[in-house]
TrEMBL record:
It comes from Kitasatospora gansuensis. This is N,N'-diacetylchitobiose transport system substrate-binding protein. It comes from the Bacteria. Residues 1-19 form the signal peptide. PROSITE patterns: PROKAR_LIPOPROTEIN.
Length: 428
């Protein structure tokens, strides 16, 4: 599931009084914390529907240590959870454990709504996936525990490729572009050899990262936009070239309905979350007469640098609100819910684990190799005080659309984006 950084109108209000609530308490380190009598855990409906036995297993671990403790569970859809969380964080009726989308963590960490945790208390913390670890870290402190991950992969149709004389899945960027050239020539100008929405900034920034660039870098206690650096421009130029050659669709689109568009059958390849290809092949969206289910194949997206394209990881973290009265038990519940044994349950349910150690064996299984391999090299957004404001202003999306439509050169769009980012990124 794709998750955007939330607007969180209530974020400012929710932290009223937080400073007086022991924001420096670490998991397992609060000597004044009384033995808990109750624990409230908020998870999304994914856990309720797909791995309820794992929830029970974590509960059992806590009840064994704290006899008589009552564990309450509440399950939410993503939007409902955020609305409810914002409304309670300024009160004393906070959950002790809350599931957060990895892109949702930043504003809560910045505002002091989450308790810092001792990463060493959690199994596999030394091997957490880079993209998830970054999502739970702010100013050198850990505020969440990675739960599970999802990576982006390339998905294409082997029947269309074969019709153009391409029989092997590309393993290098040169192979990929050569194959796409053949497919584009065979199918004509009304067909997208690679359907890549211009406003999908996750993909564009993967090209930037692949070239050694970045959105912004921290310099002391300030952040400075770097999209106009030579490395970033190189990545953006490679991204623009690919769109110009292979994207024949609407150049004002974002990626929200990419899988639906792919299901229409007017494109050969997409690059997106691992679930998108399967969703496009669902009979509800497949308008090709069932050809997608029979012919789509996913693979690790190669990058122009010669390495695999660095991916933006989706996923979830588990956090402890700073107002929790049971921080130690909450962190212990999280450890029981995310340890190696728990990760095996999540893997069997189709997720990627939160750590590189358990990710390694998945690379040997053809079914999981593409997403597992892609997840090894990942990036995350700048963990800057004003990043939420940058996202809300659609700075990246607008710059990318201008580039794709030829309204601005890469250099001009990058320079203008840097100016806009610099005006927002250091303001909480």
């Amino acid at each position: 599931m794709k998750r955007q950084l939330i607007a969180a109108v209530g974020v400012a209000a929710m932290v009223v009084g937080l400073a007086a609530c022991g924001s420096d308490a670490k998991s397992g380190g609060d000597a004044k914390e009384a033995a808990p009598t109750a624990l409230t855990v908020w998870l999304t409906v994914d856990a309720q529907q797909n791995w309820p036995d794992l929830v029970k297993s974590a509960d059992d671990a806590i009840t064994a240590k704290y006899p008589g403790i009552k564990i309450n569970h509440e399950y939410y859809g993503w939007k409902d959870k955020n609305t409810k969380l914002d409304s309670v964080l300024a009160t004393d009726a906070v959950p002790d454990v809350v599931e957060m989308g990895n892109t949702e963590m930043l504003p809560y960490m910045i505002k002091g709504a989450l308790a810092p945790l001792d990463a060493s208390k959690f199994e596999n913390s030394g091997a957490w996936l880079d993209g998830l670890k970054a999502s739970a870290t702010y100013n050198g402190k850990t505020y969440g525990v990675p739960y599970y991950a999802g990576a982006r992969v390339a998905t294409w149709r082997k029947d269309i490729a074969a019709d153009a004389g391409v029989t092997a899945v590309p393993t290098t960027y040169a192979d990929l572009t050569a194959a796409l050239d053949k497919i584009q020539a065979k199918q004509g100008d009304k067909f997208s050899a690679w359907y890549q929405p211009s406003r999908d900034w996750y993909t564009a920034m993967s090209f930037v990262t692949d070239a050694g660039g970045s959105i912004a870098k921290q310099d002391g206690d300030k952040w400075k936009a770097t999209l106009s650096s030579p490395e970033s421009v190189k990545g953006l130029t490679a991204w623009k070239d690919a769109l110009g050659k292979y994207m024949k669709g609407d150049l004002t689109k974002d990626d929200a309905d990419r899988y639906i568009v792919y299901g229409l059958g007017s494109s050969n390849m997409i690059y997106g979350s691992g679930w998108e290809g399967g969703s496009a092949a669902d009979p509800k969206f497949d308008k090709t007469g069932g050809k997608l289910k029979e012919n789509i194949v996913s693979f690790v997206m190669p990058g122009p640098s010669g390495k695999n394209l660095s991916t933006f990881l989706g996923g979830s973290d588990l956090a402890v609100p700073v107002k929790s009265k049971a921080k130690t038990a909450a962190s212990e519940w999280i450890n029981a819910f995310t340890n190696s044994k728990a990760q095996e349950v999540l893997i069997k349910a189709g997720n990627l684990p939160n750590n590189k150690t358990q990710l390694a064996p998945l690379k040997a299984d053809p079914k999981t190799a593409p997403t597992a391999t892609a997840a090894e090299i990942s990036w995350f957004v700048p963990t800057a005080p004003g990043w939420l404001q940058v996202e809300k202003a659609n700075v990246l999306q607008n710059a990318l659309q201008d580039i794709a439509q030829g309204k601005k050169t890469v250099e001009a769009a990058a320079k203008d984006a840097d100016t806009a980012i610099d005006g927002l990124i250091n303001k909480a």
